[in-house]
Amino acid sequence: MLTTHTHLLLPLLVFSPLITSAPTTPSNQVCGTIQPPSNFYQIYEEEQFTNQTSGLGPFFPSGEFSFATQQDANNVNERDLIASFKNIPCPPAGRGPYNIEFNYVPDPRYTASGNTRIDVFAINGDLPSITFPDGEVLETPTWGSTNQQTGSLIGTFTLPTGSTARTPRVFFINSVVCRPTINMRFSITNDSPAAGRVNYFSGPQAGLRIRYGC
Which pLDDT value is given to residue 9? Predict the structure, then answer.
């Protein structure tokens, strides 16, 4: 039976950034171990939705998530994506570097239009959450709470459109300092007034990932 819980807001702590800056370049690296995200969430700039969050998977039976972010013209009505990587094996259990990558594999379900250039920001600390009496932990990031935790810009990449969407490629976004949980925010860039949106199915074989041990 599915139990529905009401989302609540909690006080937040601000932490120092965990991620270092580096140029964003394509990468075809094939070594190391791949770890996909544990959770995707969407947060909303629109006033009526700023205190809400939506889970973007996983979808049964593929285990995929929807990597979805968008904004309307003139940088309004933004809907950003929060990605959370959990249980990352930091040294000595794992070996660096820990690289954030987007493995783009052509997919007929993929949709993109307008501005598809995406900024990636560090999120300082854990996502806000509530714990229920039965021990269930529910993460509750919202537009307001995430703004308080958003750190530095750590990378930018552009998902393909048109004929370029038929070509697979791996985008190297940045290297990170390992922690058991790493959270990031993905947003259509504000350096253009153009509307933009993307929706890509991200899972163990394609999409957002951490690669370590190369």
Answer: 35
Whether the model pTM is above 0.90: no
- CB-count burial class (<10 Å; 0-12, 13-18, 19+) for 92: exposed
Reported as a single tens digit per residue, the pLDDT across 22-63 is 334 444 456 889 999 999 999 999 988 888 888 888 887 888
Pair 26, 79: CB distance under 8 Å: no
User: How would DSSP label each residue in the chain?
Assistant: -PPP--------------B-----EE-----SEEE--SEEEEEE-SGGGTT-EEE--PBTTTTBEEEEEEEETTTEEEEEEEEEE-S---TTTS-S-EEEEEEE---TT-EEEE--EEEEEEE-SPPPEEE-TTS-EEE---HHHHHHHEEEEEEEEE---GGGGGS-EEEEEEEE---S-EEEEEEE-SSS---EEEEEEE-SSSEEEEEE--
